[in-house]
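User: tokens in, sequence out, please.
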């Protein structure tokens, strides 16, 4: 049975909340996810999807951040809102590394997360950065496999 978009959005929300906490604290993934899943229980497939996003973003964080920095140079990562940074990381991981989410779906989901959790202008910012990256999708995928040279 296919997982619905709404359910995947819930898993993305849990992943975003966990990544936000991991970015701001020294908590372990296990502790953070235990707390998140206690607050928002997920079915097994959605829990696996949330873990895939979290572990994938953490594994590729340096490369994802380098790509974000190249395509949003006016916003140094340490000055970018933690929510925005993690929304971008999740979306780029989904469409450029895991490649199990179509680009347009990943961008739309990122925009929705930004609307729910970011500032008033976050969704426009996220859309702009991801739109630029989507236009260079093959270069992006190649850069993420190697050292970033965009």
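Assistant: Sequence out:
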């Amino acid at each position: 049975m296919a997982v619905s978009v709404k359910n995947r959005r819930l898993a993305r929300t849990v992943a975003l909340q966990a990544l936000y906490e991991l970015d701001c604290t020294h908590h372990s993934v296990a502790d953070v996810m235990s707390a998140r899943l206690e607050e928002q229980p997920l079915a097994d497939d959605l829990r696996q999807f949330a873990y895939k996003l979290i572990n994938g973003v953490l594994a590729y964080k340096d490369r994802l951040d380098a790509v974000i920095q190249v395509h949003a140079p006016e916003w140094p990562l340490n000055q970018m809102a933690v929510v925005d940074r993690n929304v971008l990381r999740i979306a780029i991981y989904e469409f450029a590394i895991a490649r199990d989410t179509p680009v347009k779906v990943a961008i739309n989901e990122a925009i929705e997360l930004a609307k729910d959790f970011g500032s008033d202008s976050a969704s426009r910012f996220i859309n702009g950065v991801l739109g630029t990256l989507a236009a260079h999708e093959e270069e992006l995928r190649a850069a993420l496999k190697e050292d970033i040279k965009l």
